[in-house]
Amino acid sequence: MAHESTYTPSTGIERWLDTRLPIPRLMHDQFGVFPMPRNVNYWWTFGAILSFMLAVQIVTGIVLAMHYQPTTDGAFDSVEKIMRDVNWGWLLRYAHAVGASMFFFAAFIHTFRGLYYGSYKAPREILWMLGVLILFLMIATAFMGYSLVWGQMSFWAVTVITNLFTSLDTLIPGLGTTLVQWIWGGFSVGEPTLNRLFALHYLFPFIIAGVVILHIWALHIPGSNNPTGVEVKTKSDTLPFHPYFTIKDGFAVVLFCLLFGVFLFYAPNYLGHTDNYIPANPLQTPPHIVPEWYFLPFYAILRAIPDKLLGVVGLIGAIVVLFFIPWLDTSRIRSVSYRPIFKWFFWLFVICCLALGYFGSQAPEGWKLLWGRICTFYYFAFFLIIMPVVGLIEKPKRLPGSITESVLGKKDTSASGGNA
Amino acid sequence: MANSDSSTNPSLVDDDDPSRRDVIVIGAAAFAAIGGAAVLWPLLDQMNPDASTLSLASIDVDLAPVEEGQAITVMWRGKPIFIRHRTAEEVEAAKDVKLADLPDQLARNANLADTAPATDENRAAADKEPWLVMIGICTHLGCIPQGQAVGSYKGEYGGWYCPCHGSQYDTAGRIRKGPAPENMYIPPYAFTSDTKIKIG
């Protein structure tokens, strides 16, 4: 909802700024009086939570970089020095490591919220695609950050993931090997690799911050979606962002910090892998390599496909397919709440993603490999078959006439109650 | 308006030959594109292996202490090199395998032609068949297979077993089972004496 500016500068300095760089006007229009659908629920607070987590990661990351050494001899020891010697180093490093997990946890909820309420549908396609781009950048950033610890899991994660590119050798002989040596800066993962991963890990969060600004810009043109998926029609459908949603988002951030705090102070290593406390050894692969929990579903997809190149295609395709959802979903109804058939497939998809996470943590053998393959098939079938087909054959439930009606009920039928 | 004389006001010159301007536009754009690419190349190429990395090209290894049935691992270019002094049974087992049974039928031996078949002769050291020298990196995703130590699990084919995704290699380092697409690679090397080799 691109709306008329209602800002009137009240002081001299505001009038002076308003004709030069009107930041007070921007803040007033976009974060003060900005009209929000009055019926958004707590699933809509994860945007604020994610902004908060990005800030946490950038601030803790900058101070950690003041103590970290990106050398193969110094990296692991400097991390331990941060943990033992640097003032508050344990807090900063655990906050950064646990913070990455919390960041992904919130990002996954935010993504599933968008999926459930159809927030990717017109006119919010670019908004959705920018979100997928942010998710992709987060994955790259987290992967590079994990490598910096230079423990056994760090080293072998970098080895295995960069070796994915060698699958291109099956397309054009030598292409993959050339590419992977360019990425490594050598003939194996080593000091040049660590150095560049550090440089890029420092860079990427700021790229993410830039894309987040575009994401919010794209959000503020059509305005927020809401649980009914019905567009805002009248002024009574909305409430100003401040104070109603600044308070609500703030409260949600506080609740989220409680969860963050539980892991940070009581189980800081619970989400990590103990093998990463063993210094990197290029001559010995750990018996069981697993990525961090937030990559497990993607890792399960990689391992479910028996061909090396196709496995990599599946891994990357699992993210790339998300870009096309606005056009794969043929239903005109946004919210899954009003889609009686698709609802079942949606929840099965959620279970499928959780199951993929579990299978990603297990050795790919026997029934686990079989079910990993079934879930991988369903993951792609959900987007490529179910979304286009169900949208065409499904008869949706009746939508409320407006957001106000969904909240207050129809005025003339309020006595009889019980409307959807 | 004040000066409508086209001979003194260049904006009013009636340009009946647009090709002259096209030459300048296309020329400038092409020059900018080439210049941009020329600047981009150093920015990309700086990531390739540098001079000091390339200079670590070769190492010498003394094989005299390695008894039959033993194996050693040395580092070359940051990669582990498996050197196994194979027993007669291991050589026989490798020779008995039919080429048609191999998932990858190329020798992957840097000392031979790219098309050499993956026979045991082509995998082992020239004229010293008990010796097998190869890059100890699984061709799937780059893990280090186990099987070098005497007691370690060597897989169903008695060679090497990769713990990451279960690839199994035979006693000639050829892939037999699992997701790895290729045999383990043989680095360029040569015997400099009866018991010494130079790798690289």
TrEMBL record, chain A:
Transmembrane feature ranges: 42-65, 86-106, 126-149, 156-184, 199-219, 250-267, 309-329, 341-359, 371-393
An example Gene Ontology CC term for this record: respiratory chain complex III
Cofactor comment: Binds 2 heme groups non-covalently.
Stored Gene3D superfamilies: Cytochrome Bc1 Complex, Chain C
Compartment(s) of residence: Membrane
Family matches, as InterPro entries: Cyt_b/b6_C, Cyt_b/b6_C_sf, Cyt_b/b6_N, Cytb/b6-like_sf, Cytochrome_b, Cytochrome_b_C_euk/bac, Cytochrome_b_N_euk/bac, Di-haem_cyt_TM
Cofactor: heme b; heme
Residues where heme b b562 binds: 96, 201
Family assignment from sequence similarity: Belongs to the cytochrome b family.
Protein name: Cytochrome b
Subunit relationships: The main subunits of complex b-c1 are: cytochrome b, cytochrome c1 and the Rieske protein.
Binding site for heme b b566: 110, 215
UniProt superkingdom: Bacteria
Function: Component of the ubiquinol-cytochrome c reductase complex (complex III or cytochrome b-c1 complex), which is a respiratory chain that generates an electrochemical potential coupled to ATP synthesis.
Topology class, membrane: Multi-pass membrane protein
Domain Cytochrome b/b6 C-terminal region profile: 231-401
UniProtKB/TrEMBL annotation, chain B:
Domain of life of the organism encoding this protein: Bacteria
Cofactor descriptive note: Binds 1 [2Fe-2S] cluster per subunit.
Catalytic activities: a quinol + 2 Fe(III)-[cytochrome c](out) = a quinone + 2 Fe(II)-[cytochrome c](out) + 2 H(+)(out)
Localization in the cell: Cell membrane
InterPro entries attached to this UniProt entry: Rieske_2Fe-2S, Rieske_2Fe-2S_sf, Rieske_Fe-S_prot, Rieske_Fe-S_prot_C, Ubiq_cytC_Rdtase_Fe-S_su_TAT, Ubiquinol_cyt_c_Rdtase_Fe-S-su
Membrane topology (UniProt): Single-pass membrane protein
UniProt keyword annotation of Zinc-finger present: no
One Pfam short name: Rieske
Domain Rieske: 94-198
Top EC group: translocase
Gene Ontology cellular-component annotations: plasma membrane
Job of this protein: Component of the ubiquinol-cytochrome c reductase complex (complex III or cytochrome b-c1 complex), which is a respiratory chain that generates an electrochemical potential coupled to ATP synthesis.
Other noteworthy facts: The Rieske protein is a high potential 2Fe-2S protein.
Protein name listed in UniProt: Ubiquinol-cytochrome c reductase iron-sulfur subunit
Species the sequence originates in: Methyloceanibacter methanicus
